[in-house]
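Shipment paperwork, digital attachment
Item: protein structure file
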Amino acid sequence: MKNTAVITGASRGLGLALATGLARRGWHVVADGRDGDRLEKAFADFPVVTTISGDVADPGHRARLAETTKDGLDLLVNNASTLGPSPQPRLAGYPLSELERVYAVNTFAPLALIQLLLPHLRKSRGRVIDISSDAAVEPYAGWGGYGSSKAALDQLTAILAAEEPDVRVYSCDPGDMNTDLHQRAFPGEDISDRPAPETVVPALLRLIEEDLPSGRYRAAEVAR
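Attachment content:
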């Protein structure tokens, strides 16, 4: 039986790179993304990938993702994220409705998916990887919304690791990448010098395939 992974935010960027890498390794990948057309095109040549378009903040969409794992699950990668407004506002003027949306996608949706899928992961002694950011630990001006949502996700991840010893639980900071989200963080700037998302995949594969203890990792520290 193939290993099965659920990867959110898989229509582009790091999610796409990882989902493609696992599919090439023979995994059955359940790929989530908000842009259904882009998601379908990305995996048109990968019959081992099941695509389910939707918003991870929507409970109905999360239920559909969970339904695809009824035969078992080995890996959950919470990669889907939203930056918030672009350019990013300072906290003193951050619209709270926008901040609620950032937390709904970046913090609450990953936990909700974990709650749904944890029974399968316990059974398989599987793994959770929550994609974090250096903005979760560094006080960058203008990053208060995104950064604090990722800091909260880091803490949820750490506590889950303490509470679930039979599941490997990782938080991974991939570092700067040339992605759509990163471009939105720096509107009008040239970010072509940032590494491609594919350069982070080897670090994630170590977390997936090797025996590293639960914890927070920087991709640069664990890349092969």
